[in-house]
Design goal:
Elements: E1 20-28, E2 31-36, E3 40-46, E4 59-65, E5 68-74, H1 75-78, E6 90-95, E7 104-108, E8 110-118, E9 122-123, H2 130-133, E10 138-144, E11 147-152, H3 154-158
Parallel strand pairs: 2-11, 5-7
Antiparallel strand pairs: 1-2, 1-8, 3-6, 4-5, 6-7, 9-10, 10-11
Length: about 160
């Protein structure tokens, strides 16, 4: 043995697991979007919606949820996407918003799954116009199994409500 050498063989440390975003996958106007799981309080089917006269176009109406009035924001309209025919089944994604006295939900066509997506698969680059921006409500894109999914920016939808 050469002086200064050691019997120890140093192994490379295992790679650190990549940080992941936990996303809820939603469909609106036939396109896929994702919302950070922390922003979703609960998801449930919506059977009855009461229209609100003179409400902004993105407000589809109201419904009751756990004894409270829940404002239903149509995700398609919030994104400026063409509104497809009202699907037979609709879902309310109840939001955990930092706005006092506002119980709100996004109305979507389908809720597919909750998925942990590696941050390396999410492109949060600037969204410059076109299909990806959808009225500024999309902050990035992810390619999930060959499907482009828009990552929603809830702050863009609700900034006008925060005083």
């Amino acid at each position: 043995m050469v002086e200064g050498q050691s019997d120890l063989v140093l192994e490379a440390a295992p790679p650190e697991p990549e940080e992941r975003a936990r996303l809820v996958l939603l469909r609106a106007s036939g396109e896929w979007y994702a919302l950070e799981l922390a922003a979703a309080r609960e998801i449930h089917p919506v059977e009855r919606i009461t229209r609100v006269p003179n409400a902004p176009p993105e407000v589809r109406g109201i419904t009751t949820w756990r004894g409270k009035i829940l404002v239903l924001y149509d995700l398609s309209r919030c994104l400026g996407a063409p509104v497809s025919a009202v699907p037979a089944e609709r879902f309310a994604v109840i939001l955990d918003l930092p706005i006092p006295n506002l119980d709100a939900a996004l109305l979507v066509e389908e809720v597919a799954e909750i998925r942990a997506v590696p941050l390396s698969q999410i492109d949060l680059g600037p969204m410059l116009g076109g299909e990806g921006s959808r009225g500024g409500g999309v902050k990035g894109l992810a390619d999930l199994d060959g499907v482009q999914v828009g990552i929603l920016d809830l702050g863009k939808f609700f900034t006008h409500l925060v005083a």
